[in-house]
Amino acid sequence: MKIEQVALITYTIRDFIQTPEGFRESMKKLADIGFKAVQISGMPHDVLPPEEIAAICAENGLTICATHEPSVMILDEPEKIVERLKALGCKYTAYPFPSGIDFTDAQARSEFIAKLDKAGAVLREAGLVLTYHNHANEFYSWDGKTGLEHIYDETDPENIKAEIDTYWVQLGGGCPAKWCRDLKGRLPLLHMKDVGVREASNPIMFEIGYGNLDFKGIVKAAEESGCEWYIIEQDVCPGDPFDSLKMSFDYIKANLVD
After folding, report:
1. Predicted confidence (pLDDT) per residue in 60-91, tens digit
2. Among residues 32, 88, 134, 187, which is most buried (max CB within 10 A)?
3. Contact, 61 vs 36, CB < 8 A?
4. What is the pTM of this model?
């Protein structure tokens, strides 16, 4: 992994990018930390047109490596996602969360997976890539497989790639490194999110290197599977999220990059 491949998802700083001014200031702060890439998420589409988002990122030396787009729009209006990604100059997006999908319902599962595959085909035909971002709920099992296994087994590998989230795999009872290995050739994006416990045995999100996940093993497995972007995400931070992002970035730079 090279430092240029290390990005962050702007969902971590979502409270700071709800206005054009806030977005511009935030991109400058990220560049000052040392980031060279961002995944755009957590900012409503009406804050800035995609062309202006791309221009501000470019001014700060930030590549837009990926996005998260609304779940319903991806499934029902994938052509709009194609238009937005091309305006951003971005190849990858991720289906962010299976909102309203009951993985215990066989018909709902099958319909969801089929729509996901179909949306991925639309993006692929446009030269773009749809990935799937997991949480813990996809680890519900039926027919001897987890929901996440069904998603990847029942979609075309050319239509649906992976954006494995290390924290949620761990909470779901899976092994992040194994998932990276199992998705060799299908893992362009990795969400790096650490997990640990402070009190009451409740798991919480930590800055990278400050929790308990074996990121050296995870990164090695992801590299062997062809991962292109290593994206820091911390949904909840103990203080200023820019401070948490710097802690994660500095740890990765000192311990995980070539």
Report:
1. 999 999 999 999 999 999 999 999 999 999 99
2. 134
3. yes
4. 0.97
